[in-house]
Structure prediction request, 200 residues.
Amino acid sequence: MTAARRSAKKEELVIPSIESLRAELAREEAICAFRRTLWNMAVALAAAVTVTVLVFTRLFALIRVDGSSMDPTLADGQLVILRRTEEIRTGDITGFYHNGRILLKRAIGSPGDEIEIDGEGNVYINGSMLEEPYVAEKSPGECELEFPCRVPEGMLFVLGDNRAVSIDSRSVSVGYVKQDQIVGRAVCRVWPVTGIEFWK
Prediction:
């Protein structure tokens, strides 16, 4: 056997010290502990996101404005958050199901209210003219309903803010909104970012 082969064989037989083995074991344990920590954090984050999404969808709905019937309050393409509730007050922007879509209109009349709209577009509830600062231009629009009218029990009378073009409770195609159609009331506009606004 040559000297070079004997030297190589000796190098192969070198046994690492206990300290180096312990250090290597500590490194491996640290790597495993770090991976476990990352995994646990990922699982906890995924669980938190899932719970948050479930809670949000149970309590709120995110709606994209489609069309110009709520101008100037809401414009086409804006995003609005609805709080899921059946408790709607006069003046609330309300989301409700209609023909498989969610429409956004303003609640004007509650059950039992008498509604009147005159030729200039002024709205009267139980004989008192409604102050409507959210309407840019008053218009009677196309009314297929005979006024004065009384809102039936369990229903709402709704109007779009853009009275000249809005299809709402004045039209037989929408009519009064039933309680079980209501999704909720708008609490916040979230898009565009420059137009974020909260409503009580």
About this structure: The chain has a mean pLDDT of 88.
